[in-house]
């Protein structure tokens, strides 16, 4: 009896082929978060099964049983359909996965069940499992290389384990003899060139592996030579405070608007907003070098980023942050090409669930916000202005792996930017807080809220008062921020007790030629966490070395907020 079985891992494009006992089955580990598409042919019938890698294998085997029974039952004559269908089901039910002739427990996840040495038995047919060779499907070096800044190749791997792969870095040595003009200078997934490497090209040899299994070497060569860096950067002194990772019960949090490339490259930015900034320092290839080094040097556990271009997330940040030990999620802003990114250290946190939303859409469709919507409807001009905004809220529930009974509700947002939009931001914050209160109570009771973002609001604003006082009166001046035509005064209440701005209210977190002010925040619940350390912001002299931000030594017009938070023991939490 001869059968054919194949499977594909979606999105990471990993392929598995299973032949009968006369052949082999090549399989691969699915990448985290991917699905497994199993396609097989038995007795001329083709089936396709899309399965999660973290699904128990017993469910896959049960589905194969059902498919076999259905397939065999179809071929029976009508008058014998009932009896022969029953026989077919009995025959098809003899499906099992063995390892060393012992059945694999049905509770074992797909990612662990389908491994070398396993055998799938479908009736009398035995399929030997053999994984495909590890392969890099994408391997690219950055176009811009600078001494002192980490070089993080963009890599996508099939069939293998990135932690098992071997990387060898070589630099060009022009004075060497023919065939010997490359010298080994490093190993590992990330390489930091030194000043001695300036003027040399880089070469990277990538050996894809999974355990002891190896694939074909992939060799990359840089387009250009390593260039000199800008010298001292605004974040270099800050890195002296973050040389070590935080130790439980502390965790380090970063919130940072990194300046989207789609905004940095506009004529408005070049000619009006940042005319003092050298044009090359606004180029993405240059800025991404600074961003990677800055983020890496904070040794954070949690990073909430705003104004992240989708292409930057996919092609630059994801690979770099993965190499630094982070997983991340991205939420694009509707109608834009940029959005929000939350990265968390894999060894510290596990993502349990995501609860993102577009604030205006939630306001119009979710009954949680019906009272706010009713009040807003009394002013059609303001209502229209609110509903024109595509502002998003990214919400991630994270479990602390070092203390699994602790969890975080991490919120990340970038509120409406216009200077006269204080009333719009109040409505947006009202929706956000109601949503966060509901998520915590319904999904993760007891989770500690960490609310990060560019709120485009200074400390005296209504947004900050709502967060720090849990309520806002209708008399607040922000309701008149865009004039009497948009005046819609209302009382707002937060479902949370007063929150604390973990980094306080620094003189500014945004410094451009025509404006400076505190717009960025990390808010926490003081009954769940306290502040252990605030990493000092760059000095005013550092910020203004090149007049303002961004500059050749700083990649954004905002400054990252960095702090160490400390879990409170449950017994130390103050009573409400």
UniProtKB/TrEMBL annotation:
InterPro entries: CCR4/nocturin_mRNA_transcr, Endo/exonu/phosph_ase_sf, Endo/exonuclease/phosphatase, PDE12-like_N. GO terms for biological process: mRNA processing; nuclear-transcribed mRNA catabolic process, deadenylation-dependent decay. Residues 134-227 form the 2',5'-phosphodiesterase 12-like N-terminal domain. GO terms for molecular function: metal ion binding; poly(A)-specific ribonuclease activity. It comes from the Eukaryota. Its cofactor is Mg(2+). It is found in: Mitochondrion matrix. GO terms for cellular component: mitochondrial matrix. Keywords: Exonuclease, Hydrolase, Magnesium, Metal-binding, Mitochondrion, mRNA processing, Nuclease, Phosphoprotein, Transit peptide. It holds the Pfam family PDE12-like_N. Residues 255-558 form the Endonuclease/exonuclease/phosphatase domain. Belongs to the CCR4/nocturin family. PANTHER family: 2',5'-PHOSPHODIESTERASE 12, CARBON CATABOLITE REPRESSOR PROTEIN 4. This is 2',5'-phosphodiesterase 12. It comes from Neogobius melanostomus (round goby).
């Amino acid at each position: 009896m001869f059968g054919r079985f194949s499977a594909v891992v979606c999105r990471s494009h990993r392929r598995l082929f299973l032949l009968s006992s006369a052949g082999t089955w090549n399989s691969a580990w699915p990448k985290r978060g991917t699905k497994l598409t199993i396609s097989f042919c038995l007795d001329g019938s083709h089936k396709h099964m899309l399965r999660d890698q973290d699904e128990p294998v017993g469910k896959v085997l049960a589905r194969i049983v059902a498919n076999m029974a259905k397939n065999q039952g179809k071929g029976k004559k009508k008058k014998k359909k009932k009896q022969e269908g029953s026989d077919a089901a009995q025959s098809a039910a003899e499906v099992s996965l063995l390892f060393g002739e012992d059945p694999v427990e049905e509770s074992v996840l797909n990612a662990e069940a389908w491994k070398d040495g396993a055998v799938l038995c479908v009736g009398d047919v035995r399929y030997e499992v053999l994984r495909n060779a590890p392969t890099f499907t994408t391997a690219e070096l950055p176009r811009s290389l600078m001494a002192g800044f980490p070089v993080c190749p963009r890599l996508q791997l099939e069939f293998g384990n990135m932690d098992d792969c071997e990387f060898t870095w070589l630099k060009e040595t022009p004075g060497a003899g023919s065939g010997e003009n490359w010298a080994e200078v490093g190993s590992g997934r990330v390489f930091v060139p030194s000043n001695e490497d300036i003027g040399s090209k880089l070469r990277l040899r990538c050996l894809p592996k999974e355990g002891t299994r190896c694939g074909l070497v992939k060799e990359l060569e840089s387009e250009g030579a390593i260039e000199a860096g800008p010298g001292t950067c605004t974040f270099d002194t800050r890195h002296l405070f973050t040389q070590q990772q935080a130790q439980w019960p502390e965790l380090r949090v970063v919130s940072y608007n990194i300046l989207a490339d789609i905004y940095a490259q506009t004529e408005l930015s070049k000619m009006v907003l940042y005319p003092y900034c050298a044009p090359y320092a606004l180029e993405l290839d240059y800025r991404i070098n600074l961003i990677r080094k800055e983020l890496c040097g904070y040794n954070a556990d949690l990073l909430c980023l705003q104004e992240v271009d989708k292409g930057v997330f996919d092609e630059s940040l994801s690979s770099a942050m993965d190499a630094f030990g982070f997983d991340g999620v991205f939420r694009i802003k509707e109608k834009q090409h940029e959005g929000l990114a939350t990265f968390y250290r894999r060894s510290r946190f596990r993502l349990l669930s995501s609860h993102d939303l577009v604030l205006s859409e939630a306001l119009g469709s979710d009954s949680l916000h019906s009272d706010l919507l009713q009040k807003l409807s009394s002013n059609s001009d303001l209502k229209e202005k609110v509903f024109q905004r595509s502002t998003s809220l990214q919400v991630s529930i994270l479990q602390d792996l070092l203390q699994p009974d602790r969890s975080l509700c991490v919120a990340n947002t970038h509120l409406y930017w216009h200077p006269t939009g204080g009333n719009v931001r109040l409505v947006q914050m009202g929706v956000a807080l109601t949503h966060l209160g509901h998520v915590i109570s319904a999904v993760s009771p007891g989770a500690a809220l960490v609310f990060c973002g560019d709120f485009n609001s200074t400390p005296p604003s209504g947004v900050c008062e709502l967060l720090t006082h849990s309520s806002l009166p209708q008399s607040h001046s922000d309701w008149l921020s865009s004039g009497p035509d948009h005046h819609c005064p209302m009382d707002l209440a937060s479902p949370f007790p007063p929150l604390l701005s973990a980094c306080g209210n620094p003189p500014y977190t945004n410094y451009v030629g025509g404006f400076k002010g505190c717009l960025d925040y990390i808010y926490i619940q003081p009954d769940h966490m306290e502040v252990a350390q605030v990493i000092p912001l760059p000095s005013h002299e550092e910020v203004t070395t090149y007049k303002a931000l961004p500059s050749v030594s700083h990649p954004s017009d905002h400054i990252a907020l960095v702090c160490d938070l400390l879990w409170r023991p449950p017994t130390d939490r103050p009573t409400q």
